Amino acid sequence: MNRKEEILRSAMKLFAQKGYYATSMQEIAEQSGMAKGSIYNYFKSKEEVAVSIFRYHYDILFRKMKDIADDGDLSAREKFEKQLSVQIEEFSRHKELVQMLMGEQTVKANDEVHRLVFRIRAKTLNWYRRAIEEIYGEKVRRFSLDCATMLNGMLKEYLFYMAIDRKQLPLAKLASFLLRRLDAIVASMAGQEEPLLTMETMYDYLSAEQTDQQERQKQILTYLDQMIATLPANGDVEENVRHSLETLKQEMKKGEEARPFMVEALLLYLEKWDLPFYDELKAAIDRYFD
Hints:
2 domains, Homeodomain-like_sf
């Protein structure tokens, strides 16, 4: 575990135990076994720590979800059950994260944290909705947002029992148990009944993924501009690096048409020059193409 991860784990425990506002950077530093001044080499503020906690854990989770989705040997139902199981295991392993999510103080800590938590909720809802439509087909499409919401609500309560009340539940059985309940919910959606949640009502959630990508693209372009600005004005090596950064910038401006193989090749070239913001740039690009 590197230093940044140690700080994030320490902060997550403190936020869960004491609440976001009651926790100081001094306490996070002490919990991490380092001087307060040193912690600012990694994070500028407590707000940045909170954002990084959510981003770090959900990037790992959604990457695992994508790996399962790409498994061509599994049916739609098998993929979703496996994804739910992984989600349950991750939250069980990091109970402090559930405690943070359940605590409104952290969620409302500042605008950036609030926006990030909203995007995570939106991505989760869209993931559930698409999986439900793929499993059950056209008959459930009108009600897929309601079904996704009910499934999410059921799962959150079980996670609450485990994380907050410390109840021991059979984790291996939970995903399949919830899917069988979902079968019953879907079967009940019939006749002339209208959905409570429509595409119009939930437009902000449905469009959040696109907005998220636009914000990631903007962040990537900002990192590239900062990296270009740090280069000396002359020198053959610097000119080659500048050209590579400019080429990468033009590629990322293409948005959905950006070519991953070209981006990866440019990143591999830039990696050896020990450029400032390189790690942040690569992490942002990984999230963009995830």
